[in-house]
């Protein structure tokens, strides 16, 4: 394979697997949140939570993870934004769980470290489905 024949890092690799998508709607007394995602996307994101920094972070997850993500959230941000943050996180996690399905073909553990301008990002994941690792 020549270097010019290699796909770019942003080119999704198409596998002969069922679509890994999830869509969840969560309504509480404080929020109304809808999340749809495609794990095998290209990094497209539409985020409208009413919280600019949360929208920015959702765009980062989508862009760097090459996950297509759509998040719509209405919450009681005139009081505080914590209900919206919590419920977006819960709903995102539920949609991700749905998209992962039986987790077939996924390596159980993973980690990532990235130095940014003024921060060091560290992520460690365990996709076993257990609430913790002992």
Report on this model:
The chain is of the alpha+beta class. It has a single domain, classed as Imidazole glycerol phosphate dehydratase, domain 1 (Ribosomal Protein S5, domain 2, 2-Layer Sandwich). The protein is 25% helix and 31% strand. The chain contains 2 helices and 6 strands, in the order E-E-E-H-E-H-E-E. The strands form 2 sheets. It has a 4-stranded mixed beta sheet with strand order 1-2-4-3, with helices on one face. Strand 1 and strand 2 form a beta hairpin. The radius of gyration is 17 Å and the shape is globular.
Compose a concise summary of this entry:
By secondary structure, this protein is of the alpha+beta class. The chain has 2 helices and 6 strands; from the N terminus they run βββαβαββ.
What is this structure's SSE topology?
Layout (H helix, E strand, L loop, with lengths): L20 E7 L3 E8 L6 E4 L3 H14 L2 E8 L6 H19 L8 E7 L4 E7 L8
Parallel strand pairs: 3-4
Antiparallel strand pairs: 1-2, 2-4, 5-6
């Amino acid at each position: 394979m020549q270097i010019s024949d290699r796909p770019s890092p942003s080119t999704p690799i198409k596998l002969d697997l069922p679509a890994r998508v999830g869509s969840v709607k969560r309504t509480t007394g404080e929020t109304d949140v809808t999340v749809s995602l495609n794990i095998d996307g290209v990094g497209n994101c539409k985020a409208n939570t009413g919280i600019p920094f949360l929208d920015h972070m959702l765009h980062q997850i989508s862009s760097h993870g090459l996950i297509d993500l759509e998040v719509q959230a209405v919450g009681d941000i005139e009081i505080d934004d914590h209900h919206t943050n919590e419920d977006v996180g819960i709903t995102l996690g539920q949609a991700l769980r749905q998209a992962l399905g039986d987790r077939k073909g996924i390596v159980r553990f993973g980690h990532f470290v990235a130095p940014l301008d003024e921060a060091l990002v560290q992520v460690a994941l365990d996709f076993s489905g257990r609430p913790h690792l002992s």
